[in-house]
């Protein structure tokens, strides 16, 4: 079995706002840096990763860099696929809602949510394709996208529950939480494990 660990970035300094920094330039807060170190020394302790990659945003790269430094794996690789190609569209969605949940985002733009869930699941499969069986990779991305991806993967594994119903059963990932996506030797999703704060 192959495993692709995907974490949401740790807490950031500020959210997107009119006149504020662009969404991709928002940085980790001091608390976010401390959380990333704690995750690396506790949750990730003893784990070996063939590759650590992040989306292009500053806060995800900072989170991945702290993981890499603590684990001694070198600098993370930036993978554009872990971000969103619809950043302007996402920024519009995020700016019109205060702290939106994945359900809020879904109702605001259902097609975008479905597309992003499918797209990121394909990125995870592409990462896993290059992993020998039995090895694992670590990625850092964003919330929202991961909840949509979890719904996509769960709907593929259990075809008796629709994508939308899967999404309504998923609790939003908080900053610093993650998911381990499990794939078989043929690169099919076979399970997932949520990594939640206590």
The end-to-end span amounts to 27 Å
Mean pLDDT across residues: 88
Structural class: alpha/beta
Could you give me the name of the CATH homologous superfamily?
Phosphoglycerate mutase-like
Quaternary: single chain
In order across it, which strands form the biggest sheet?
3-2-4-1-5-6
Helix count from the secondary structure assignment: 7
Shape: globular
CATH topology: Rossmann fold
Instruction: Spell the H/E element sequence.
Output: EHEHEHHHEHHEE
The figure for the number of domains is 1
Q: Helix coverage percent of residues? A: 40-55%
Proportion of residues in extended strands: 15-25%
| The level-1 CATH class | Alpha Beta
Indicate the radius of gyration in whole angstroms. 16 Å
Uncertain stretches: none
Strands, count: 6
The largest sheet, given as strand count, sense and whether it forms a barrel, is: 6 strands, mixed
What's the architecture in CATH terms? Answer: 3-Layer(aba) Sandwich
Characterise the protein shown here:
The protein is an alpha/beta fold and 198 residues long. It has seven helices and six strands. The chain has helices at 30-41, 58-71, 87-95, 102-108, 110-129, 145-157, 163-169; strands spanning 2-8, 52-54, 77-78, 136-141, 178-183, 189-195. It has a six-stranded mixed sheet. β5 (178-183) and β6 form a beta hairpin. α1 packs parallel to α2, α5 (110-129) crosses α6 (145-157) and α6 (145-157) packs across α7. The relative contact order is 0.21. The model has no long low-confidence stretch (mean pLDDT 88).
């Amino acid at each position: 079995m192959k495993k692709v660990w995907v974490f949401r970035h740790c807490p950031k300094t500020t959210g997107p706002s009119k006149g504020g920094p662009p969404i991709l330039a928002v940085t980790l807060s001091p608390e976010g840096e401390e959380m990333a170190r704690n995750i690396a020394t506790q949750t990730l302790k003893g784990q070996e990763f063939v590759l650590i990659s992040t989306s292009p945003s500053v806060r995800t790269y900072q989170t991945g860099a702290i993981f890499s430094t603590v684990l001694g794996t070198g600098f993370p690789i930036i993978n554009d696929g872990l971000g969103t190609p619809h950043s302007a569209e996402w920024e519009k969605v995020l700016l019109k809602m205060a702290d939106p949940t994945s359900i809020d985002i879904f109702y605001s733009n259902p097609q975008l949510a479905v597309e992003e869930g499918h797209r990121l699941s394909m990125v995870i499969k592409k990462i896993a394709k290059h992993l020998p069986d039995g090895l694992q990779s670590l990625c850092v991305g964003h919330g929202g996208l991961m909840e949509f991806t979890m719904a996509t993967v769960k709907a593929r594994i259990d075809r008796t529950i629709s994508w939308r119903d899967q999404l309504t059963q998923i609790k939003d990932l908080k900053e610093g939480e993650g998911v381990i996506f499990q794939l078989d030797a043929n690169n099919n999703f076979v399970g997932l494990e949520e990594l939640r704060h206590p």
